[in-house]
Amino acid sequence: MLQGLEEAIKRTDTCPYRRTFHFDRGWGYQMTAYQAMLKKHLIFQSMSRKGNYYDNAPMENCFSVLRREIYDGHIYRSRQELVRSIERFIHYYNNDRIKEKLGGLSPKQYREQVQSA
């Protein structure tokens, strides 16, 4: 049951930024093994406030953009092809895709600007 979390921790181990694990108040919120693993790896735990669906809005928006840009209307011939496409999208979304809310910067550019200020 913790296999997905373990894989995410391994893949993000070299991340130079504070890692955050966000989820709603579902099963992950109640699972002490998840909470312990996050704490062990110094990963910040974030969860939605009870009854406040706006807390998930940034993540829901990201998934909506991902579905529109790489999934809707596209047929993937293998799981591996889909995974590569998602990985390319995540890189693009974080490094190259500009956002009006971030002053026309990509998330990476915005983080770098804030850190150097």
UniProtKB/TrEMBL annotation:
Domain of life, source organism: Bacteria
Gene3D superfamilies from the UniProt entry: Ribonuclease H-like superfamily/Ribonuclease H
Domain Integrase catalytic: 1-115
Pfam families: rve_2
InterPro entries xref list: Integrase_cat-core, RNaseH-like_sf, RNaseH_sf, Transposase_IS3/IS150/IS904
Protein's name in the database: IS3 family transposase
Organism (species): Aedoeadaptatus acetigenes
